[in-house]
Structures are given as C-alpha cells and as structure tokens.
C-alpha cells in the first residue's frame, strides 16, 4: 500500500510569492490532516478534512492559508502571499477512522520543507 | 486545555545505555498518549500509544512507555540504545476532534 505522499519535498520562495503544497493520502482514507512545524517548535495542527469537507480548521494561522480537497482525494495547501514566518515543515497525514483506540491510526507523510526568504 | 511538555530538546546516550525520554502532559480528561519518531527525511512513525488498559505500553524497536496518572507522565524508555535509534522523538496527546497536540520534540543522539 502506498503511503501518504507530499510534494514538493522542499520549496524555497521569496517573500510575497505564492506556494502550493500537495498531499496525496492513502487511498480510501476519508480523513486528511495538515500540520506544521516551525523551526524548533512543536508540530501544530492546522486543519482536518473529512472527505472534501473541513471538519476542523481551528489551527489555520490566517487567511493567507487556503486548504482544499476537491473530490475528497488529494489536498492542496496554498500560502499567498508567503511571509518569512511561514517557513517550516508542513506535514500531511491521513487516517481511515476517527478513533484513538482504533488499530487504524494516522499515517504521516515525510513533509514539505518550506523556506521563505 | 491539553498540553505536552518534553524535557530536554537534545539527549545523548552511549550505545548500549538506557534511553529515557521524558514527557509530561496536561489534560482535563483521560488522555490518549502517543510517542512518534522521525528519522531523517522520513515521516512521523508511531512508536507506541496508550489509550486504555495496561499502563505499561510496549512499542516497536524495543521501546516502551509507562502511563503514570499521578505524575502526569508518559516517559519513553529503551533498555539498550542502538545507533539506529538516533532520531527525533515526539510525545503527543490526542485531543477532542481527533487531532494531536505535540511536544517540542527530543533529538536523540547515540554515541559509539
């Protein structure tokens, strides 16, 4: 089974530019999550999709960030315009169920390292 | 509100020595607790989790953790470190709408 795929793996952009990150979840996983880790800090939740609907977007930092999941398959996270503080590693994860005791937990991708200069 | 504190952003141990990575949590409800590991250029991988039941949880690669409610702790241990254990380790608590609250991570270095 293919894992969670994220690309690009690295992106370096200038302040003010736009960047789009993509996440392909495991096939059949209705739940898709975005997290972000700013250098040296904790990994923070951004949002959660169930199929194509936003279940929880309480972690989105501001309106420069736009997440979509058209058709309930892959998801994109667009940052427009990018600021220096947006630099960090963006992780995507997917899960089949929403149950902490489930044997089907989260699977994380390897992340996209975004550097805004 | 729930939170996680990992003591020590960097820990060094000799190969063969005990590994102890500390995690304390704060939660107003019975917690779900997790340890994840990230090897270089890879995604986060679940090491072990505590949901209910036995408080000593065994995970992959010889790691285990003990849930101690009285101490609000969930420390990760391994009796004998191996070079391949060098990685960054994250403690996390499961929050309401099926999202994680992570600690700041502990980078483990294993010395030959």
Which features would summarize this protein structure in a list?
heterodimer, A: 117 residues, mainly beta, seven-stranded mixed sheet, four-stranded antiparallel sheet, 11 strands, globular, B: 112 residues, six-stranded mixed sheet, five-stranded antiparallel sheet, 0% helix
Oligomer state of the chains in this structure: heterodimer
Outline the low-pLDDT stretches of chain A.
Answer: none
Structural class of chain B: mainly beta
Mean pLDDT of chain A: 93
Describe the sheet with the most strands of chain A. Answer: 7 strands, mixed
Beta-strand portion of chain B reads over 45%
Description of the structure:
The complex is a heterodimer of chains A (117) and B (112). Chain A has 117 residues and is mainly beta. Chain A is 0% helix and 48% strand. In chain A, the strands form 2 sheets. In chain A, strands 2, 4, 5, 6, 9, 10 and 11 form a 7-stranded mixed sheet that branches. Chain A has a 4-stranded antiparallel sheet with strand order 1-3-8-7, with no helix packed on it. Chain A is globular, with a radius of gyration of 14 Å. Chain B has 112 residues and is mainly beta. Helix content of chain B is 0%, strand content 57%. Chain B has no helices and 11 strands. In chain B, the strands form 2 sheets. In chain B, strands 2, 4, 5, 9, 10 and 11 form a 6-stranded mixed sheet that branches. A 5-stranded antiparallel sheet of chain B has the order 1-3-8-7-6, with no helix packed on it. Chain B is globular and about 40 Å long. In chain B, 38% of the residues are buried. The mean pLDDT of chain B is 93. The A-B interface holds A 3-4, 31, 33, 35, 40-45, 48, 55-56, 59, 91, 93, 95, 98-101, 105-111 and B 4, 9, 32, 36, 41-46, 49, 51-52, 90, 94-95, 97-105.
